Amino acid sequence: AQVAPREVAAAASAPAGRPLPTSTLGDLPRAVALPLLAACCHGIGRRVARKRTLRRARVLRTALSAEDLEVLVKGAEGGDQESQYQLGRMYLVGDGVERDPALAASWLTKAAEGGNATAQYNLGMMYMAGEGAEENPKEGARWLKMAAEQGEAAGQYFYGQMLLEGEPDAGVERDAGEGIMYLRAAAEQDMVEAQYLVGSILLNTPEEATEEKEWAAYWFTKAAEKKHPGSLYQVGRMWFYGTAPMEQDFEKAANWISAAANEGDPDGQYLMGTMLLGGHGVEKNLEWAAHWFRESAQQGNVDAQYNFGLMLEAGDGVPADPEQAAFWLEAAASQGDQEAAEVKLEVGKGN
Length: 351
Fold this sequence. Notes:
Elements: H1 34-40, H2 44-47, H3 66-77, H4 81-93, H5 101-113, H6 117-129, H7 137-149, H8 153-165, H9 176-188, H10 192-203, H11 210-224, H12 229-241, H13 250-262, H14 266-278, H15 286-298, H16 302-314, H17 322-333, H18 338-349
């Protein structure tokens, strides 16, 4: 098939750009054009693939002696809030005791009612997931809101996402401004997932919103420094395209994108493949391009599936394998890629 693999088109020219903020968190403004962000965040929360997983490993597991466990139980029964939370956590994860979600919910409820924010968060997630208690989104949202109001970062993150678009089944009306406020609060507590989501919302603003793009770069960089895969990719992508405040720099892009690819980010793996394919910021290398296309394709990236199929068909960077080429082109076609479907027909005809 006489079809060239897809490359990510480089920006024709880089904007002037501005440097990343250098001030400390304490010096940063508390609000960034909330009305504008509220209008641009529609759908972001779901696109970031919210995971309502219980934060079970809040502390390292420790093997308590029978005597220590007895002291903890007595404290919990005596109304000590921290003992109630720790006992609930232990039953939730099976730490030193047989795992019992229902008993965990019972102790966490006592701690949550006493005002323990982490217990409120975990209890809220249990109601959302229907673990240890009957699934009840409204009750889950109530506890998550309480945790968020007390400054629990995970509560702010999950409740903030619920506010972004609203969740009627949980009794949460859409309030994007308040949702962003909670997400930013979680980001300021160094929660990488919140930093990534805030960055995504800011990046989704109009092209002329340069201040918002600067803040997107700031939050992505904060999370990327902790090796968050998606943030590594986004920082690299901003360097690749020259998205303000970055000036286009393929070599800097390659450093960030390579890190994202090695951390398993499928978009980073695909972009790394295209950079190797075209020699953008790195030496052209078809073998490594094929490697990263394959890694990304295996995670479902449709463009990577298409490119890897073409490289297998042509024998570029990998031994020619018409059957595998057809397999990956079909995988891309099954995701609605019409061009992949057409090329697969050509491969099948031997053209």
